[in-house]
């Protein structure tokens, strides 16, 4: 007999079942409440992420202009061509039958014969899906210049919704693709707008401007430093999507406009920048420095940087191209997949992108004597009348410091010591100033801090702290051979020395403006402090002008201009203990009595026969300032002595009457040789060149003239007078070049515009560069 459950057991079972049901219903209610109330925002966002599609509308990056509103960097609209294979095949190519039926219906209903013919053509093409696809592939391959096989692979990847075919496509090409797709009734190939950065001046000022990363972010130069201003704010287009991922019509779309980036207006002047880069390139080619060369030109009173260059540089339109011939040659020999190749490539990129003027350190050498001298004067440790002895060397503690010259400079005051660039004299000046006084002004001139220039990557100096500065360290520091500084620190300190004593912050950017031209930020001159008095500064200007005028051939002497300057030649003792590795530099300013422009150039480790700053760096300043000073509105004013030496610019008198031409030329102090019996001049030799007074000009007066030619003689090693007499004997003229041309003892170099042995027309002016046979200073 089977026992039946009792009533109590049934009630107990029902109770447990009811409890489970109640608990389950309670849990469901709790979950519903949690999802709909307490976590509603979370689930709404998840739903929106599936139902809404957000497309970024990139902002246009701000433009970079020079001081004359010349464009240095600018963004332009380009397009990314991509394929949506699912859309291309599912909605179009795989629906061949539906398209055929639709076209047949259109043909049947159309009365216009031309339209029927058009639809019939599309029908014939639609009947062959393969032909339609092949035509599309061929069209894209030829239009975008992409391999046909790659296009086919991109368009058949049916598991993807976004396959990039090509980036940075021009608008005309994108329009051509859109027209083709419209005519063929196809979809699944899209052209999305984006922006590309262009640098129309190519490598000009590239180390200052910098460039962008692959993602469009500034990573070097101004592009990096002002990236937040330049980049702007991207916009967005938010659209609703259906279950299959397609966009729902326009009424579900919401747009947020992009905010274009602000633009930069620089103090950099492309004309001044061009002259600086051209001269640096010439010096680089002539001296082959192992560690490149750099230059800075600025306003010493305001800190406005007019030009800044490093040679060699790069083209920011193609920053990955290796511009060092040596590095490129080495890379050719290596396996591209090797670690050695990768390391060399990264090092080459780092070097060519780096702005040497702010990111690399050097021993300033004798240029630093300007700082030591002005500090001692200001501190009244010395006077302008105090004298210092030379004897070719001086011993401090157990260290012997030699003068660069092998002869005794004798007793000399500060002005003479600066002119002679005498190391022993400046050791004595440093001793009178003392370690504490030296470091006080070293710090005041800004050498222990960054200048604050608005560029990334400014390096900090390496200097001897006061706590470790003994007598030996003070002695070597006094003539610029212990502390390593950046070129921007040196020119900023030098500016303070000659501008009245005020240390200013160098500034690349003048102002920032928005896309409507409104000024967002205007940069004013920032004066950090006054380092020396107006009186000391005036004395230093006079001393440095005396340096240039006292030894014209080894300084930045330019006829008709008042220029001050100082050369420097330092030994790279931290990389070469032999002392045979040098840095050549020069710093010049003009006008000497009221400076408006200052220029510093540095050639790091020249490998030719010349290595002194007076030989390597000073000619760069001469070449650049000869072009830049007239451009800035400073015109020569000649002394009587300079007028006697002044060259004559030969005017063009072609097509003038012989009588008028002869008078014009003779009034300028030129001799005239007339060839032929014609009434007017049909050709002259020379023209558009500067020659000395008394030079001859040949005038041809008949159309069928026979031009006499002569052979250019070898002039190397001759004095100016000897070179002039030699050329006159050949029927040629001399056009002397170089600041040493009018100094006693200057000799002709092999630098002349016509090669020895070349045949040239009689009367041709031969440009010959002269330099001192012995170095006048470091």
Descriptive account of the structure:
The chain is α+β, with helices and mostly antiparallel strands. A hairpin with a 6-residue loop joins strand 18 and strand 19 (597-604). The model has no long low-confidence stretch (mean pLDDT 88). The N and C termini lie far apart (128 Å). The longest helix has 32 residues, at 7-38. The chain has 26 helices and 29 strands. The strands form nine sheets. Strands 2, 3, 4, 5, 8, 14 and 15 form a seven-stranded mixed sheet that branches. 39% of the residues are buried.
In angstroms, what separates the terminal alpha carbons? Answer: 128 Å
Uncertain residue segments: none
Percent of residues in helical segments? 25-40%
Strand portion: 15-25%
What is the subunit organization of this protein? single chain
Major sheet details: 7 strands, mixed
Total number of helices: 26
SS-derived structural category: alpha+beta
Mean pLDDT: 88
- Rg measurement, Å: 38 Å
Can you count the beta strands? 29
What is the 3D shape? Answer: extended
Feature tags:
778 residues, 38% helix, five-stranded antiparallel sheet, 20% strand, extended, alpha+beta, 26 helices, seven-stranded mixed sheet
Quick summary of this structure?
This protein has 778 residues and is an alpha+beta fold. Helices cover 38% and strands 20% of the residues. The strands form 9 sheets. Strands 2, 3, 4, 5, 8, 14 and 15 form a 7-stranded mixed β-sheet that branches.
């Amino acid at each position: 007999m089977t026992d039946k459950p009792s009533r109590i057991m049934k009630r107990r079972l029902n109770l447990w079942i009811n409890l489970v049901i109640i608990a389950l219903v309670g849990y469901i209610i709790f979950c519903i409440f949690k999802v709909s109330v307490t976590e509603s925002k979370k689930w709404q966002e998840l739903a929106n992420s599936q139902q809404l599609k957000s497309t970024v509308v990139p902002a246009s990056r701000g433009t970079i202009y020079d001081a004359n509103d010349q464009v240095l960097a600018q963004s332009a609209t380009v397009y990314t061509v991509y394929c949506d294979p699912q859309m291309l095949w599912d909605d179009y190519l795989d629906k061949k039958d539906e398209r055929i039926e639709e076209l047949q219906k259109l043909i049947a209903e159309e009365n216009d014969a031309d339209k029927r013919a058009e639809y019939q053509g599309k029908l014939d093409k639609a009947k062959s899906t393969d032909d339609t696809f092949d035509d599309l592939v061929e069209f894209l391959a030829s239009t975008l210049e992409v391999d046909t096989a790659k296009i086919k692979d991109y368009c058949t990847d049916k598991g993807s919704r976004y396959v990039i075919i090509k980036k940075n496509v021009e608008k005309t090409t994108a329009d051509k693709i859109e027209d083709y797709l419209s005519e063929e009734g196809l979809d699944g190939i899209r052209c999305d707008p984006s922006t590309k950065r262009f640098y129309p001046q190519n490598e000009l000022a590239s180390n200052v401007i910098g460039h962008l990363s692959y993602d469009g972010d500034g990573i070097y130069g101004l592009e990096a430093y002002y990236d937040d201003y330049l980049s702007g704010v991207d916009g967005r287009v938010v659209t609703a999507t259906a279950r299959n991922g397609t966009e729902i019509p326009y009424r579900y779309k919401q747009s947020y406009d992009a905010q274009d980036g602000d633009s930069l207006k620089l103090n950099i002047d492309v004309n001044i920048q061009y002259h600086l880069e051209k001269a640096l390139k010439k010096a680089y080619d002539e001296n082959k420095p192992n560690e490149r060369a750099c230059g800075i030109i600025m306003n010493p009173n305001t800190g406005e940087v007019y030009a800044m260059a490093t040679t060699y540089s790069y083209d920011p339109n193609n920053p990955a191209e290796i511009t060092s011939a040596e590095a490129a040659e080495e890379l050719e020999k290596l396996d591209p997949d090797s670690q050695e190749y990768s390391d060399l490539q990264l090092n080459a990129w780092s070097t060519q992108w780096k702005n040497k003027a702010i990111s690399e350190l050097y021993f300033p050498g004798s240029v630093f004597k300007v700082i030591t001298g002005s500090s001692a004067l200001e501190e009244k440790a010395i006077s302008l009348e105090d004298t210092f002895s030379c004897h070719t060397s001086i011993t401090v503690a157990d260290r012997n410091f030699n003068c660069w010259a092998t002869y005794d400079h004798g007793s000399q005051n500060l002005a003479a010591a600066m002119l002679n660039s005498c190391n022993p004299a400046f050791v004595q000046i440093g001793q009178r100033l003392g370690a504490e006084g030296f470091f006080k002004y070293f710090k005041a001139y800004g050498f222990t801090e960054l200048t604050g220039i608005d560029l990334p990557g400014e390096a900090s100096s390496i200097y001897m702290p006061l706590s470790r500065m003994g007598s030996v360290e003070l002695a070597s520091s006094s003539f610029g051979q212990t502390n390593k500084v950046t070129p921007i620190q040196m020119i900023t300190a030098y500016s303070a020395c000659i501008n009245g004593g005020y240390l200013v912050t160098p500034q690349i950017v003048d102002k920032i403006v928005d896309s409507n031209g409104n000024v967002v930020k205007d940069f004013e001159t920032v004066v950090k402090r006054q380092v020396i008095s107006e009186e000391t500064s005036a004395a230093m200007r006079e001393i440095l002008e005396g340096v240039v005028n006292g030894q014209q051939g080894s300084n930045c002497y330019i006829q008709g201009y008042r220029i001050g300057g100082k050369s420097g030649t330092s030994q790279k003792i931290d990389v070469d203990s032999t002392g045979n590795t040098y840095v050549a530099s020069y710093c010049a300013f003009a006008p000497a009595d009221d400076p408006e422009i200052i220029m510093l150039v540095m050639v790091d480790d020249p490998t030719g026969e010349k290595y002194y700053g007076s030989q390597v760096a000073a000619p760069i300043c001469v070449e650049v300032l000869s072009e830049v000073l007239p451009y800035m509105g400073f015109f020569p004013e000649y002394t009587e002595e300079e007028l006697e030496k002044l060259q004559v610019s030969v005017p063009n008198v072609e097509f003038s009457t012989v009588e008028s031409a002869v008078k014009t030329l003779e009034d300028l102090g030129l001799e005239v040789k007339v060839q032929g019996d014609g009434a007017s001049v049909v050709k002259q030799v020379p023209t558009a060149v500067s020659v000395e007074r008394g030079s001859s000009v040949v005038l041809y007066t008949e159309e069928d003239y026979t031009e006499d030619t002569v052979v250019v003689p070898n002039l190397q090693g001759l004095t100016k007078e000897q070179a002039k007499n030699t050329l006159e004997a050949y029927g040629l003229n001399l056009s002397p070049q170089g600041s040493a041309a009018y100094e006693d003892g200057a000799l002709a170099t092999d630098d002349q515009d016509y090669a020895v042995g070349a045949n040239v027309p009689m009367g041709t002016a031969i440009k010959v560069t002269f330099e001192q046979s012995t170095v006048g200073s470091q």
